[in-house]
Amino acid sequence: MFLDMGPLELVTIVLLAVIIFGPDKLPKLIQDLSAMIRKIREFSDSAKEDIRKELGPEFKDFEFEDLNPKTFVRKNLLDNDSLGLKDIRNSFDLKDELSTVTDAVSESGRTVRGATGHEAAAGGAAASDRLRKRPAAPEPVEPGETPPFDADAT
């Protein structure tokens, strides 16, 4: 709880406590605070034990930290490799896949740049065919007329 506080912050809190409560009331306040924290911890531990007892023997190794999804996944999927996930993860070599894709893209770029006039014309004709196959813009609807229903669009 106090691990992320620096020494300057801790000194500031102590000075503020001395100024606000006074040096004569501060020891009693610290005792009361520590007793309250102790009782909260005892209550929490007894509640955890009651829950474990009610869950039964199959959940005897249940930890409340397992309720955190990240911890649950890490414990049950990543540490326990009964599914063979490490083999699957190791079979993917992203650098190799990325270099393959990069090489393929750079080769296709060289092919287009080095194409003869006939090959370039064939490529241009294919592109113009794709443009011609695009659907036309819908016709405007007159006022009071219902627009056509497109079942695929809904």
UniProtKB/TrEMBL annotation:
Ranges of biased composition (kind: Low complexity): 114-127
Primary site of residence: membrane
Membrane topology: Single-pass membrane protein
Localisation per UniProt entry: Cell membrane; Membrane
Key words of the record: Cell membrane, Membrane, Protein transport, Translocation, Transmembrane, Transmembrane helix, Transport
Region Disordered, residue ranges: 103-154
Functional note: Part of the twin-arginine translocation (Tat) system that transports large folded proteins containing a characteristic twin-arginine motif in their signal peptide across membranes. Together with TatC, TatB is part of a receptor directly interacting with Tat signal peptides. TatB may form an oligomeric binding site that transiently accommodates folded Tat precursor proteins before their translocation.
Subunit (UniProt): The Tat system comprises two distinct complexes: a TatABC complex, containing multiple copies of TatA, TatB and TatC subunits, and a separate TatA complex, containing only TatA subunits. Substrates initially bind to the TatABC complex, which probably triggers association of the separate TatA complex to form the active translocon.
Family, as annotated: Belongs to the TatB family.
Protein name per the record: Sec-independent protein translocase protein TatB
Organism for this UniProt entry: Streptantibioticus parmotrematis
Taxonomic classification: Bacteria, Bacillati, Actinomycetota, Actinomycetes, Kitasatosporales
